[in-house]
Structures are given as structure tokens and as C-alpha cells.
Amino acid sequence: MLSDMAITRQDLESDRLRTSLCSTPVASSLLPEADVERSLCDALGARPETPGLNGDVWLFGYGSLIWNPMVVHTDRRLATVHGYHRGFYLYSRINRGTWDNPGLVLGLDRGGCCTGMVFRIPGHVIEQEFRVLWRREMLTGAYHPRWLRVRVGNAPDAPEQRALAFVMNREHSAYAGRLPDERVVACLRHACGLYGPAREYLQQTLLGLTTNGVDDPYLGRLWRQLQESDAAETNGAATRASVASADAAESIIQPHETV
User: Fold this and answer.
1) d(CA 66, CA 105)
2) What is the pLDDT of residues 221-253, one digit of tens each?
């Protein structure tokens, strides 16, 4: 079994991640290899010919791809997709949680808009890089790969282009739907999977967006609530410890009646 935070590009290239999970409780949730391959071929067959890219393609990242793309790329830029928004809609029992204590990760779901990053993948390595992507993102089939229209850059009149993005599969058993903030925070606080803690996923995504000048009020709100929850737990523990200490001291100094 792979250890926490041990996933590398080499693991994906060799398909070591899937192999390591075949003898675990999550094995039944893995998308059959034939289905993974079929999905990959369909996406490759539908790739757009975008003027000016000379055979290259864009990949749209809205979560961990922003700060850990793991794919070969020659350019990265801010981009916005309309018709989809970012949210913690996917229970994670592998990457950021376990079967018994699932975390949450982000997905693109219908409605609104989402600003993230696009990565330009050279035409001569598209199949190679997509295979790495599929082994990372399509392990359980929780996403649908889609060529979405994106506006690259900050200019409001910038022409739309197509970029590959992974959107939520609402029929998947791990689809969480719209959860209240308190439920999201509870899932993020202590869950940890092969890629590390769920809370780190939120922190790194928020940092990656902020570093590129993107303000996401939803993620910022969740991070503040997570910190407040941590502080409340720490204060509560300190109070309980103080009361216990006082009770112990009182029992020592309190004179006992004798009969």
C-alpha cells in the first residue's frame, strides 16, 4: 500500500496507484480499466483544433491541478469557464480520505462560473499526458471529461477557446450534492488520504488562487470557518483541562471529615 503523500507522477505513469488499491476496500469502486481507456480515447477523439495553438490543447484546472498539475505544459494562464462553478461536491475515500472517514474534494457542477488556470499541453505529448491525467482524475469515474468553452486571460473581450475539464458525474455514488458549510468543514477537518489531509487540499487551492490574483469567497469562507472550528476545539480542550486540574487540586487540599 502506498504511504500518505507518496503519490508521484511516476506512480501514475506505472499505474502503481491502481495496483496498490486492488486489494483494499475501495477496489470495488475503481472504474474498470477498459472504461478508463474508452473514456480517454473518446476525449482524444473529440479534441478541438484551436486556431493559434498549432495542435496544442488547453487543460482547465480548478482544484489541485492549479498548484500540482503533474503534466508537461508550456504555458499557464488564468481562465474562466461559464456555466459551471467550483464546490466541494465529491466525497474522497482515496486521495483525501478513507473508506471509514471520507474527506471532500472539489468538482465542477452546473451553474455560475469558475476562474482557474489553463495549462497548454504540447500536441506531441497529448496522449501521454492525458493518460497520466486519467489515472489521476478518472480512477473511480466520479468525473465526466468535457471540452468546455473557456475565456483565457482577464480581458472581457478575449475570444473563447476549448479546454479539457473534469466535471461532476452526478450519478456517481460519491457525489455529495450541495452540503451546508458546517458539513463541509467537518469533513475537511480530520480526513486524510493517500494524497494527504483534506484540509491541506482546501488550503493549497485557496493559496494557489490567491497567488494568481483570484478571490474565491466560498473557499475563503470555508477556510475561516475551519480555523474558527479549530480554535473552538482548542479553547474547549484547554477549558476542560483547566477544570480537571482545579478539581484535582481541590480534592487534594479539601480536608476530609473523620468519624
Assistant:
1) 13
2) 999 999 999 998 887 655 555 555 556 555 555
Q: Catalytic one among 13, 49, 137, 160? A: 137
- 13 has catalytic annotation: no
Q: Whole-angstrom distance between the N-terminal and C-terminal Cα of the chain?
A: 65
What is the reported pTM? 0.87
Helices (H) and strands (E) in the chain, counts: 8, 7
Q: Report whether 216 contacts 204 (CB < 8 A).
A: no
- Residue 218 reports pLDDT greater than 50: yes
Residue showing cell 482547465 = 60
List the domains of the chain with CATH numbers.
9-246 (3.10.490.10)
Give the tens place of pLDDT for each residue, 3-47: 444 689 999 999 999 999 998 888 999 999 999 999 999 999 999
Strand pairing report for 192-193 and 143-152: unpaired
Tally Cβ neighbours within 10 Å of residue 219.
22
Q: How far, in Å, CA of 132 to CA of 56, rounded?
A: 17
| Rounded percentage of the chain residues whose pLDDT exceeds 70 | 88
Ranges of H-type helices in the chain: 9-13, 16-21, 33-45, 64-67, 126-137, 181-190, 198-211, 217-253
- Asked if residue 40 lies in contact with residue 134, where contact means CB atoms within 8 angstroms, the answer is yes
